[in-house]
Amino acid sequence: MANENKNSSAYRAYFFAFFSVVLLILSAWVIWDDEFGLRPWKHYQKEYKSLKHDQLVKEYKQAQFEFQRSGGAKRLADLNAQLEKAEAGLKGKGAGEKYEQLNRQLEELQKQAAESQKQLQTVRGKYLETEYYFTRTQKPEYKKEMDALQLQIDAIDKKSKDIQVKQEPIRESIAQIAGNIPAIKAEIEQLNKILEEKKEKIANNEKAPIEIKQFLIKDVDKADRCVSCHIGIESSKQPSAKQPYSKHPLTSVYLGHHDPGKFGCTYCHRGQGRATTTVEKAHGKVKYWDEAMLKGDMTQTSCLNCHGDIKNLRGAETISKNTELVKKYGCYSCHKIPGYEGIGDVGPELTQVGTKVNYTWAVNWLLDPKKYFSTARMPKFFFTQDQAEAIADYLFSMSGSDRRDVDSANIKNDPKLVEQGKALWSQARCNLCHATGGRGGDHSKVYAPDLSKVGSKVNKTWLFNWIKDPNKYFPGTKMPRFRFTDQEINALVDYISSEYVDDESENKYVAPVQIQAASIKKGKDLVQQYGCYGCHKMRGMEMVQVAPSLKAQGVTFLRSDEMREKIGTELSSIGSKPVELLDFGKLKKSMPNDRLSYIKQKLRDPRGFRLGLRMPNFRLSETEVNELSAVLYGFTDSNAPVRFMVPSRQELDKMAGVQGYKFTGDFAKVIADVKCTNCHTIKGIGADYAPDLSLAGSKLQESWIRNFLANPDMIRPLLQQMPKLGLSMGKTPAKVTMPKFNLGTQKVEDTNRSDVDVVVNYFQQELVTSDIPTKIPVIADVAMPEQIAQGKKIYDDKGCRSCHQLGTDGGAVGPNLSNVGNRLLPGFIFKHLENPRKYKPDIVEPNYGFTERERVLLTNFLMTLKISAK
Amino acid sequence: MSDLFNKVKKNLIWKSVFRRDYRDNVRDRALAVFGNVFLHLHPVKVRESAVKLRYTWGMGGITFLAFIILTITGVVLMFYYHPSVDQAYSDMKDLEFQVPYGVITRNLHRWGAHFMVIVVMIHMFRVFMTGSYKAPRQFNWGIGVILLVLTFLLSFTGYLLPWDQLGFWAITVGTNMGAATPLLGYQGPFSEYLHITPYNDIRFALLGGATVGGNALLRSYIWHCIAIPLIATVLMVVHFWRVRKDGGISRPQNH
Amino acid sequence: MNPFIEIITQPDNIAIVIMILMVSFFMVWAFQQAFQNDKLKASGYAVDGENDQDVDTYKPLVRIELLISLAVMLFLTIWSIVVDAPLEEIANPTLTPNPAKAPWYFLGLQELLVYFDPWLAGVVLPSLIVVGLIAIPYIDTNPKGNGYYTFSERKYSIIIFSFGFFILWLLLIVIGVFDRGPGWLWYWPWQEWDAHRVVFEPTRDLSNLVGVESRSLAGFIIGAIVVGVYMVGGMVWPYKYWQKKNPELLQQLGMIRYVTIVFLFITMMSIPIKMILRLVFLIKYVWITPWFNV
């Protein structure tokens, strides 16, 4: 028994040893892991330090070289020699002895001064103590003591002052003997400092601690430790462009306006700010972390979190461009998206479509809009022929047609009228908005339908009525009312319907067929199911769109956009929707299961996830998919603090109770008719296709406005955006011109004034600012011709011609100035030169910092640039 | 060398701590046990079966060890944790990313807790299989069952503390059952006769609210870190005491 | 990845795997020792430990305690180094995970929710389990098998306990962890979980079998009769049986003990019975009353 016990105890001893050793090894592992394995930032910081060291050493060497080259070193040597010589002069007998004696005296006096200073402190301390006791006890002996101490204090004070006075002459004598020695010393110090500073930087870099660095935003408990690895993100000179050492791109825009100490990193970049242990965790590409880090231009998505206006926001160019797509395709028609309310229907009104288009066209269009023209915005719904016919039947029946109409295109066109129409077409610059045969039409800015085949689509009667008054058929259309006469319209209609026809269109003539009630019913169901009413105004659908909650309250018709129930999923927080809520359906295994991939796939193939999905296919290009998904990704339940929010102009006005700007009087009528704001912005309303006219009255000369409206001519030889697009300058530039609206001398309805009178009057009354003076200062000491000559010299010296053209000479970035003297008011030029960005924040013109005198001279010169009217 | 050894051992400080030398004789072996506050939990002599691994499996002792490990790691974790909705989750993140040895401490606590639950169940199984609940140990079995329930509750209350989806919904599911308590839960049978609503039922009392929120987190925290450990400790004292008083580890009674 | 591998390698499920391994190991060990002792006893030898002498606590016991402590700490340390405790997304009251599972040791109770209403599965049954466990020493009057592993001497108590412990407790936990997916639907371990899976399973109530609307008075009465017969019959029948076969046993137990044993037993057995009714016969409720459903 005992024997057995012993054996087993020895056996157990081995176990003990084994377990202990393994536990020890494990402990060592844990310690190593905690020190290095889980702290990769230590490595990065060390690496950065050495890169920074190399950079600083290089700078130091360069500074040294520069110091040699610029003669700094020589000067230093000279000064040292001078100093030595001067100091040698102060040694030995005579002056030297006296100098030393004076210095000794001064030293003695300084010692005395220090002594009395110390005494003073002691006595003052005693005084304060006594005062305390006196205040507490009010005993007179304390008062007495205080008085005695006060006397002592006064005495010491006086002594100190005496010493001070005694020092003065001695100092003066010393300075006299020393001569320029202090000046030399100061200069030597100055020179030494140049290199010393660089050296100090190197030393400081060595001393920088290796530690977790973070941006801590206390009140929202956010700690972004990204800088622990991205250590050089805020540096002005990056020691390496390699990640994670590089600096932030466009530092002044992004970090300059968003101090990382206040904003952190992850509000914009997402990712997991607290993580420090691995790159994947920090960048949020791990399980249980929904927010993968955003990189590059994609980060601009986050601008949408806080900025109400991203148009013209520096650094948000990409996302700003991308948001145009939401408007172009009208995503808000079917989906609720905050900030996109009340924009109006993206598609044309269909209440009278039966009288507008021919039936065959309508069916073909429903089947595949891109077949008609490739830039069609309407998506493909994948209807069958039956379904398309049913919908067309419904639409026709709801717009007063009881049969599938016969095409009316067989009416002959008059060749003479066609000829006249052709001239009108180009005079009115229809191609500016409408593309035909692949030419014209800037769809990224002003969307207008391609008219290449319009002759096969619409009938002539409708076309006539449309051109005569577009508002009547489609209130809110972008199409302006041109001031054509009926005869001119007839000519245009004949031209269009003879020139722009679809050669391949079949079935031009169908026999009239009565529309069946069953088909109408089927069409109505389809329209309801696919929500056509989201984009088009149509009859019979008014009730369908009303939100069910309102219906329950007894609402019987749709009065405003807020009452509308959108057919699609709400997108207000799609960019932060938990992945669990996204249904990947049959694609779950074949694609990455993350939010961005889902959004992209949905845009590519909206019905691809499973059966029964209704969203139509917009057939976006891959670029458009990326752009649109970037916008959608930015629609989030932002958890950013309210103090970050930058409301849009409109929101601010709303908050302040300011009514949005409204055009008044006759001008409002002109605007509603001619749609100036399709291209121009006026007082915050309108598009940015053409110049902002908010201050036109202070800027433009009346005679020029009149001439221009009567016969718009080009101002800028190039698109403003052209240089940014990087197109070569050799190509024939696209011309920016204004359509000729025939704003002539005809009277605006119900008034006695002409359009131009109304416009000019409104410009001068409303679109002015007191900021811009009507007169510029006068320079009295120089004669006018001389002033103009001097102005021209400034113009040449500052290189204005590299951007502006005079005649045909000069660059094409800025407006042509050949006729600026006829166009602009001197006050505007004068003020504009002071700060070009003031009236146009996105302008590229640099601020030269002209003096007032220079500005007057330049203005006077520019005002002489005139092309006399022919 | 041995000189130094002697000097150290004759030292006043050494003696004050260890009292006497150990020689391998009956007296010293006994003294080693009852002279030591930790060891005197044991009697001086035990039945051989108590030493045999195949009989006890060591499960009771392992449970106690797990409890000690959890107490130590738990105290460390408490230094870094605020039981508030705003901070709890980021404290967990900091524990992972910033606190020295935070990851290993949390892992030990989490896995130790799972381990303790497993071990305590196996302990119960062993005690049943050896019939050790039989007279005179009936009462101690009862204490053991309550300790088992307390172990579950300790783990359950700890679930919510990280304030993540797992814990939040586990607690929501768990406490929703409380709402179905007959008479006292608002969804339970007969509760309408007592005018029970979601705002005065047993679930409300558990959570400190009608839903899992800040109050529930605080309650979990206090139950987890203070109340249940205290109760469990008291019951463990009773449990261990009764093991000895009821005749030590059970054994065949024929003799 | 293979769904089975995926599910058992989830950090929190590793504990369940460890539990299965440990429990199986100790179950085998316990029964092996029990059968060994039974054999010894049958051959007239002393059972294991019967002839044990006293030994010193210091050092044999202390040594083995320290050794086991070391081993356990080693085990936990390795576990903690190899597997990181997960931390899911921050709690979001508006986003219910599917499935929302209780802590694993309560999954047996959550599984019962399929078969019983929450007041039974979540409150009454767990309370009865605790009460029943505490009651075991007082209702098991068999003096044999105290202090050693045995099976033959305590056949019935071991079978009943093992059924409750392994099947109704641990097996249901394992099912709850590995086989219950989104919507608390059944998934075999090799099946992929699918949050959008739709399963239509028509259920009926017991009285529907005989064509009586379960929510009607007749249905109520039928349900009451079935439950009553089960409870009362379950109480009376064994009494009659034992009276004939083994009257001393009843004498020994006494009335209170008898009622307690049988009540706890038939309550426990109601769980598998209801599970079979639900799974095989698709019966949701046996008895519908205005206050509660069984």
How do the strands and helices of this protein lay out in sequence?
The complex is a heterotrimer of chains A (870), B (255) and C (294).
Chain A: H1 2-37, H2 40-69, H3 72-88, H4 95-137, H5 140-178, H6 181-207, E1 215-217, E2 222-224, H7 251-257, H8 260-263, H9 266-269, H10 279-282, H11 303-306, H12 317-329, H13 359-367, H14 369-372, H15 385-398, E3 403-404, H16 415-427, H17 460-468, H18 470-473, H19 486-499, E4 513-514, H20 517-530, H21 548-552, H22 595-604, H23 622-633, H24 649-656, H25 665-674, E5 681-682, E6 685-686, H26 696-699, H27 702-710, H28 722-725, H29 755-765, H30 784-797, E7 805-806, E8 809-810, H31 820-823, H32 826-834, H33 852-862
Chain B: H1 2-10, H2 12-18, H3 26-34, E1 45-47, H4 48-51, H5 53-56, H6 59-79, H7 88-97, H8 102-129, H9 138-160, H10 165-178, H11 202-207, H12 214-245
Chain C: H1 3-8, H2 11-42, E1 54-56, H3 57-82, H4 107-112, H5 118-139, H6 155-178, H7 217-245, H8 247-281
Helix pairs in contact in C: 5-8, 7-8
User: How many distinct helices of chain B?
Assistant: 12
* Envelope shape of chain B: globular
Instruction: Give the topology string of chain B: H per helix, E per strand.
Output: HHHEHHHHHHHHH
The biggest beta sheet of chain B reads: none
**Global outline of chain C:** flat
Extract low-pLDDT stretches of chain C.
none
- How many extended strands of chain B? 1
DSSP strand count of chain C: 1
Structural class of chain B: mainly alpha
Structural description of this entry:
The complex is a heterotrimer of chains A (870), B (255) and C (294). Chain A is mainly α and 870 residues long. Chain A folds into 6 domains: 1-37; 71-179; 301-336 and 568-653, no CATH class; 353-542, Cytochrome c-like domain (Cytochrome Bc1 Complex, Chain D, domain 2, Orthogonal Bundle); 665-765, Cytochrome c-like domain (Cytochrome Bc1 Complex, Chain D, domain 2), CATH 1.10.760; 784-862, Cytochrome c-like domain (Cytochrome Bc1 Complex, Chain D, domain 2, Orthogonal Bundle), CATH 1.10.760. Chain A contains 33 helices and 8 strands. Chain A has a two-stranded antiparallel ribbon with strand order 1-2. A two-stranded antiparallel ribbon of chain A has the order 3-4. Chain A is extended. Chain A starts with a helix and ends in an 8-residue tail after the last helix. Chain B folds into 2 domains: 1-45, no CATH class; 55-245, Cytochrome Bc1 Complex, Chain C (Up-down Bundle), CATH 1.20.810. The radius of gyration of chain B is 24 Å and the shape is globular. The relative contact order of chain B is 0.10. Chain C is mainly α and 294 residues long. Chain C has 3 domains: 1-52 and 105-199, no CATH class; 53-87; 201-294, no CATH class. Helix content of chain C is 61%, strand content 1%. Chain C is built from 8 helices and 1 strand. Chain C has helices at 3-8, 11-42, 57-82, 107-112, 118-139, 155-178, 217-245, 247-281, and one strand at 54-56. In chain C, α5 (118-139) runs antiparallel to α8 and α7 runs antiparallel to α8 (247-281). The radius of gyration of chain C is 24 Å and the shape is flat. Chain C starts with a helix and ends in a 13-residue tail after the last helix. In chain C, 28% of the residues are buried. The model of chain C has no long low-confidence stretch (mean pLDDT 90). At the B-C interface, α3, β1, α4, α5 and α6 of B face α2, β1, α3, α5 and α6 of C.
